[in-house]
Write a structure and sequence with these properties.
heterodimer; A: four-stranded antiparallel sheet; elongated; B: alpha+beta; about 40% helix
Chain lengths: ~200, ~140
């Protein structure tokens, strides 16, 4: 009869305690695994954002074309004359013309403007039509490239071996390089230095 | 007694040893899954740093696209825990080359960072133009 006596209370309690501990450990492990996926996605999204944005800016600003822009006033251009390249900008705005293929459009040269609006980095673009037709930026829809930007600063280099400038008023030359500093939240953004491929107006 | 006799030997349940082995196997497989997930996290963390380092190296290469004729050697540190080094030296030209000495420069950009207890680096090599220093 002694083989059939069942478990004592002590045995049941120990068994239950062991079981519950194993269950807790298992569930915690599973939850951590679930969170891992979320945090992995977060990190990859963050890296992708930096990669994609850096690549886009490198490609488009790097390909800025020295096409003519005729200014509304002569003061528009530093080296005299009423015209210069389309490239112009200050510490928080930059405007340039470069080839762009986007969506179903045929591509071609576009006038682009990158600017900090409140805490958003926004891009506007418009087909480049002629040197005299000014773009009415207020009418254009913008595309947000990056949200919650704390700091956005653009620097311009006139020639290698000189100092970075905060302002690139209209000129007959494009800068040789553009530097973009972005700070957004806690994350680290590598400073972006873009070398421009061309050049100078050749109208003289 | 009648009851215990009627229970066939085959359905007597698991022995303690069998249970211990089963739980051990379960634990080991859970541990393996856990480690795999940890490995993925670490790889992604390294990948993130690597992406920043490559961006930084490309920026440095753009920043030093024209260097002094005599070559250069600069180092620095950025926030985010990256250190960088840019070294350029005049390329050895063919004897009958028409280019002045130093006009072509081999440049080596190295970006390093600390990852746990390992040092990692990304290096980019290129050839850039040399420039004469402006006359004072």
């Amino acid at each position: 009869m002694s083989r059939l006596r069942g478990f004592t209370l002590l045995e049941v309690m120990i068994a239950l305690t062991l079981l519950s501990m194993i269950m807790v450990a298992t569930i915690t492990a599973l939850r951590t695994l679930g969170n891992t996926k979320t945090s992995l996605t977060q990190v990859t999204d963050r890296v992708d954002e930096i990669r994609v944005l850096s690549e886009f800016l490198r490609n488009t600003i790097g390909a800025a074309m020295p096409v003519v822009r005729v200014g509304s006033t002569e003061e528009d251009f530093v080296d005299g004359g009423a015209y210069g390249t389309y490239f112009a900008g200050d510490a928080t705005h930059v405007m340039w013309v470069s080839p762009l293929v986007a969506g179903a459009d045929l591509g071609g040269a576009f006038v682009m403007q990158l600017a900090l609006v409140e805490d958003r980095l926004e891009l506007k673009w418009h087909p480049y039509q002629s040197d005299v037709q000014a773009v009415n930026w207020d009418e254009l829809e913008s595309r947000v490239l990056l949200k919650s930007v704390d700091e956005f600063q653009v620097g311009y280099l006139a020639a290698y071996g000189t100092e970075w400038l905060d302002l690139w008023a209209g000129s007959q030359r494009n800068p040789v390089a553009v530097r973009i500093t972005i700070k957004s939240g806690e994350r680290y953004w590598p400073e972006l230095v873009i070398r421009l491929s061309g050049g100078e107006l050749n109208l003289r | 007694m009648i009851l215990s006799r009627s229970v066939p030997v085959r359905s007597r349940g698991f022995s303690l040893l069998e249970m211990v082995v089963a739980v051990a196997i379960l634990g080991m497989s859970l541990g393996a899954i856990y480690q795999a997930a940890g490995g993925a996290t670490r790889t992604v963390a390294v990948d993130e740093k690597m992406a920043y380092a490559v961006e930084l190296a490309r920026s440095l290469l753009a920043n030093y696209a024209v260097v002094p004729l005599a070559g250069m050697n600069e180092t620095g540190e950025t926030e985010g825990g990256f250190t960088w080094e840019v070294v350029s030296e005049p390329a050895v030209l063919a004897v009958d080359s028409l280019l002045p000495e130093g006009q072509l420069q081999h440049i080596n950009v190295v970006v390093g960072w600390r990852d746990g207890n390992r040092d990692r680096t990304v290096a980019l090599q290129s050839v850039v133009a040399g420039r004469e220093e402006p006359q004072e």
